[in-house]
Amino acid sequence: MTHPVATVDSLTAALDGLVDRVPGAEFAVILSPDGLLLARSRQVTDDMAEQISSVVSGMYSLGLAATRVCATGALRQVVMQMSRAFVFVATTRGGAILTVRMGGEADVGDMAYEVALFAAQAERDLPVYLPARAATVGGSGADHWRP
Predict the structure, then answer these.
(1) Could you count the other beta carbons within 10 Å of the beta carbon of residue 103?
(2) 40: helix, strand or coil
(3) How confident is the model at residue 26 (pLDDT cuts 50, 70, 90)?
(4) Is there a contact between 77 and 112 (Cβ–Cβ < 8 Å)?
(5) Who's near 91: CB < 8 A, 6+ residues apart?
(6) Is 120 helix (H, G, I), strand (E, B) or coil?
(7) Could you tell me the pLDDT band of residue 124, with boundaries at 50, 70 and 90?
(8) Which domains can be identified in the chain, with CATH numbers?
(9) Which residues contact 99 (CB under 8 A, 6 or more apart)?
């Protein structure tokens, strides 16, 4: 049995469906762990996609650093609240990164649920990325901060 290969068209359609279905969702993108754009909803222009990829890649890296420093397990979701919007960044078990922006008036709990549900369902159609091997800094062997 072969694993289905995701196409940009199928991912785009899935992201458009997410944005259309969830009240308050404004756009959605899927990135590889290194910030490469895999797909985007129809609301995202080329320039916007490039900017979103850069910002989300940075947010994702900060989230990974926080999980290492705090030794709290795998990163699942990062949420950024702004005055008129929220940005949800969720990882799939396969390593892809789903990002959804929603308006500030939307229900945050519903959006968090929808993002997590979509990430779980979409992972079967996304490439699987192997985790990067943890590097030891300074030869100490410590992989997280201890007070």
Answers:
(1) 13
(2) strand
(3) very high
(4) yes
(5) 60, 74, 75, 76, 77, 97, 98, 119
(6) helix
(7) low
(8) 8-124 (3.30.450.30)
(9) 28, 29, 30, 31, 52, 56, 87, 88, 89, 90
25 DSSP β-pair partners? 102
Contact between 88 and 73 under an 8 Å Cβ cutoff? The reply is no
- Lowest mean per-residue pLDDT among 6-20, 26-40, 64-78: 6-20
Nearest to 59 by CA among 93, 90, 15: 90
Q: For residue 92, name the pLDDT band (cuts at 50, 70, 90).
A: confident
Residue of 78, 97, 94 whose CA lies nearest to 33: 97
pTM, full prediction: 0.76
In degrees to the nearest 10, what's the CA dihedral of 61, 67, 73, 76?
-40
Cβ proximity of 4 and 125 under 8 Å: yes
Query: Which amino acid belongs to residue 74?
Result: A
Whole-angstrom CA distances from 132 to 89, 93, 144 are: 19, 14, 16
Contact 73, 67 (CB under 8 A): yes
Q: In what order do the strands lie in the sheet with 25-31?
A: 37-40, 25-31, 97-103, 85-91, 77-81
As given in the structure block, the two tokens for residue 62 are 């900060």
Report whether 48 contacts 140 (CB < 8 A): no
